[in-house]
Amino acid sequence: RKEVEQDPGPFNVPEGATVAFNCTYSNSASQSFFWYRQDCRKEPKLLMSVYSSGNEDGRFTAQLNRASQYISLLIRDSKLSDSATYLCVVNRGSYKLIFGSGTRLLVRP
Amino acid sequence: DADVTQTPRNRITKTGKRIMLECSQTKGHDRMYWYRQDPGLGLRLIYYSFDVKDINKGEISDGYSVSRQAQAKFSLSLESAIPNQTALYFCATSDPLAEQETQYFGPGTRLLVL
Q: How far is Cα A49 from Cα A87, in angstroms, rounded to an integer?
């Protein structure tokens, strides 16, 4: 079983839709959590950190549920430019980032 | 200019050849990492370095070696390339003093081993 699991998708949604991704992690000692975005054939880039109380950045909302060991990302009012792969990332402590294999999002006109 | 650069961006080589992938950064970060990415597997850590004299194995270090020549440079070598090392390789850096220690990635090197 992978330490960080994501639904690979693809999620195919129309512009303007709201879409949510979930991610589960197995190591309860995980300390911090992130969502990265990766465009096709490009490097991953930090989208947002995920805080225990939940946090929002514009159209993006991230939630953490430590008891159930899952993280979510909600995207409202989807844009064509949101099409990408979203990587769930867990920090087990110090340097050690564990990456999920990603959820692919396609936003259609 | 990009903060983290990698050379070459694309490389085709033959089984048994030795190759080196280079990474340079201008972010001033002490920590540097090498990952490989394969379809469906996510990014996996090969080696990491917290300082110029510090080298540590990641989860998949067999068949690879690294050199940290300076704070800004971290190179990855494949001593004798094999086809299952065909992958997308990323270098990354991080600042341990940042509130949330996130990693910043280079543009990647696509390696094909024939």
A: 12
